[in-house]
Structure formats: structure tokens, C-alpha cells
Design brief:
52% of the residues lie in helices and 9% in strands. It is mainly alpha-helical.
Length: 92
């Protein structure tokens, strides 16, 4: 420790922004949607041994199985891609 005064940070100093952050965030969403769609399609086709156009009867509507299963899986992949690409979509 020294007795010399320290300089305080200037109030006009702004944190540096990442110019590629928006592109990385868009890439995370696209990659996670593609990974989820591909994973769901493979599971539906080869594990469940049914067609990709299969539907699920919920109440009085028939909902397609592929988007119904791919949406939560997209969020799962998004969390991991967000972590590895450090896009901070999900806060710590």
C-alpha cells in the first residue's frame, strides 16, 4: 500500500460493448432450434418408429408432435450454447 492518492474512475467511462454479441445470440437461437429439431426428428423416426407428421390429441385439438417436443428441447440446447458461446442470454 502506498500513500499516493488513487485516481477514481471517470464517470464518463462506459463499459465496452461487444459488437458481435447480437450475431452470437442469433446464432445460439438458430443452432439450438436446428439441434432440437434434428434430435426430435431422429427420436420420433427411429426410437418411436412413427412418422414425423404424427399428432398428439390434446382435448379437442390435434397438435403435431415434432414442434411440441422440439420447443422445450430448443430451450435446453439454448442454455448450453449460451454457456459455451458466452452470450449471456440466461443470466448467471
Amino acid at each position: 500500500m502506498t500513500d499516493q492518492p488513487t485516481t477514481a474512475a471517470n464517470s464518463d467511462d462506459k463499459p465496452k460493448t461487444d459488437p458481435a454479441l447480437f450475431a452470437r445470440r442469433a446464432m445460439v437461437w438458430v443452432l439450438s432450434a436446428l439441434a432440437a429439431g434434428t434430435t426430435c426428428a431422429l427420436v420420433i423416426k427411429f426410437f418411436l418408429k412413427t412418422e414425423l407428421t404424427a399428432t398428439v390429441p390434446i382435448s379437442f385439438v390435434e397438435i403435431p408432435l415434432l414442434p411440441l417436443a422440439a420447443f422445450p428441447l430448443t430451450l435446453f440446447f439454448m442454455i448450453w450454447f449460451d454457456y459455451f458461446l458466452k452470450t449471456r442470454i440466461v443470466n448467471d
